[in-house]
């Protein structure tokens, strides 16, 4: 059977948008904006490679909408109140729409909250977490944040973007509000109804501002964390994993207009391996598949679920798994089986997209021998933690040289 006839090569619809294949590029924050938060030559080169790489659906990296609280010094910024910044974004979107009109492209919004770096920004919190803390925010702050998200979404719609990812994962602000640990007595804390209010109000107001259903709304969502009281846990101090609450919130977002979800796990502020499985935690790949299947089974058939945590599978070899046939345990094998069996609708390429942005094209052309497979060494994460430009240290000489210099 040729690659063109496999499930990964099938078209599908996300909302009213047709996507030409089942490859999705994950939002990978690469920290290569300038100090004003705008596009650099390296940023533009990175997205050009992704556009040319053949994936049908691209989610742009975690973009901050304000300068005050950020996790990265050179994180990409969308400042709707800055004419120069707006002009940079419009130029970028004009380039994308002119040269790659068939690639569905959405932008992930983010606020770092308690994960903001206090060396250069203000850390805020909805309930102080040991080891993090921050300035306690009130309802007015959340209202202003929602307003900023809505205005940014409307601006992106006006300049040609295909949608937004509202990001409720990995311990950032959206996740901090949703998790049971947020049992504070306020409008956005305590009961599930209150904690889900931020996500629901945000989704509703974005859809109201942009009623065009071709403009997609979705979210990358942590089905469960790895901290007591985290998303998908049974209570504010509970270590017990109970994903039902997460699934309930996703159903609520679906009812309010969300048409895609990127399944994920974990909280990058406390641990790493659940979010990004490595050779010493390879079983977490199967946990991602399980979480994606849970999400797929709880949502409407037309709502698209994108599976995560799959990069470690690579070509089936040297991926840390024991007791399995490598030919039946690769990224592409499980991508096809997962779609066919209904675990998920698309595969999300995260670290693998850094290693080789052209994997979808090479797969379609039958050139798997040319693929640069991700080693899941997480040296890319090391660059991020050092506030450096992020990319594949193994396969890309540019990032290899950066890593050599900063790791001395």
Structure summary:
By secondary structure, the chain is α/β, with parallel strands linked by helices. It has 12 helices and 12 strands. The protein has an 8-stranded parallel beta barrel, surrounded by 4 helices.
Characteristic key phrases:
2 domains; alpha/beta; eight-stranded parallel barrel; 12 helices; single chain; globular; TIM Barrel; two-stranded antiparallel sheet; 408 residues
Per-chain topology:
Elements: E1 12-14, E2 17-19, E3 23-25, H1 41-52, E4 57-64, H2 83-99, E5 104-110, E6 124-125, E7 135-136, H3 139-159, E8 163-165, H4 173-178, H5 192-209, E9 216-222, H6 244-255, E10 260-264, H7 284-298, E11 304-307, H8 331-341, E12 346-349, H9 351-355, H10 359-364, H11 379-385, H12 397-406
Parallel strand pairs: 3-4, 3-12, 4-5, 5-8, 6-7, 8-9, 9-10, 10-11, 11-12
Antiparallel strand pairs: 1-2
Helix pairs in contact: 3-5, 5-6, 11-12
3D structure, described in words:
The model has no long low-confidence stretch (mean pLDDT 96). Helix 5 runs parallel beside helix 6 and helix 11 (379-385) packs across helix 12. The protein is of the alpha/beta class. The chain has 2 domains: 3-376, Aldolase class I (TIM Barrel), CATH 3.20.20.70; 377-408, no CATH class. The strands form 3 sheets. The chain has an 8-stranded parallel beta barrel, surrounded by 4 helices. Strands 1-2 form a two-stranded antiparallel sheet. A two-stranded parallel ribbon has the order 6-7. Helices cover 34% and strands 12% of the residues.
């Amino acid at each position: 059977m040729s690659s063109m006839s496999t499930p990964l090569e099938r078209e599908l619809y996300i909302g009213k948008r047709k996507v030409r294949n089942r490859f999705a590029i994950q939002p990978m924050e690469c920290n290569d904006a300038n100090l004003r938060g705008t596009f650099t030559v390296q940023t533009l080169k990175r997205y050009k490679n992704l556009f040319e790489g053949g994936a049908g659906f691209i989610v742009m990296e975690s973009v901050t909408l304000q300068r005050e609280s950020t996790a990265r010094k050179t994180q990409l910024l969308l400042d709707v109140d800055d004419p120069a910044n707006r002009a940079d974004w419009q130029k970028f979107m004009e380039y994308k729409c002119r040269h790659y009109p068939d690639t569905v492209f959405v932008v992930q919004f983010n606020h770092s909250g308690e994960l903001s770096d206090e060396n250069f920004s203000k850390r805020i919190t909805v309930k102080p977490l040991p080891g993090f803390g921050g300035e306690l925010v009130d309802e007015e702050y959340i209202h202003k944040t929602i307003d900023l998200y809505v205005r940014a979404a409307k601006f992106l719609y006006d300049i040609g973007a295909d949608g937004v990812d509202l990001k409720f994962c990995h311990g950032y602000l959206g996740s901090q509000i949703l998790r049971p640990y947020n049992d504070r007595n306020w409008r956005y804390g305590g009961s599930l109804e209150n904690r889900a209010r931020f996500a629901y109000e945000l989704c509703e107001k974005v859809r109201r501002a942009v009623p065009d259903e071709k403009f997609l709304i979705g979210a990358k969502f942590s089905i469960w964390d790895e901290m007591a009281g985290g998303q998908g846990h049974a209570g504010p101090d509970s270590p017990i994993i109970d994903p039902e609450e997460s699934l309930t919130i996703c159903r609520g977002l679906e009812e309010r207009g969300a048409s895609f979800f990127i399944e994920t796990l974990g909280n990058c502020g406390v641990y790493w391996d659940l979010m990004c499985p490595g050779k010493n935690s390879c079983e977490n790949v199967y946990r991602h598949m399980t979480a994606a299947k849970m999400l797929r089974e709880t949502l409407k058939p037309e709502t698209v679920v994108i599976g995560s945590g799959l990069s470690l599978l690579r070509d089936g070899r040297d991926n840390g798994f024991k007791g399995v046939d490598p030919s039946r345990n690769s990224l592409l094998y499980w991508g096809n089986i997962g779609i066919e069996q209904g675990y998920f609708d698309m595969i999300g390429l995260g670290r693998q997209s850094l290693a080789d942005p052209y994997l979808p094209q090479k797969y379609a052309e039958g050139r798997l021998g040319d693929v640069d497979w991700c080693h899941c060494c997480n040296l890319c994460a090391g660059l991020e933690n050092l506030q450096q430009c992020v990319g594949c240290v193994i396969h890309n000489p540019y990032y290899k040289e950066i890593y050599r210099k900063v790791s001395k």
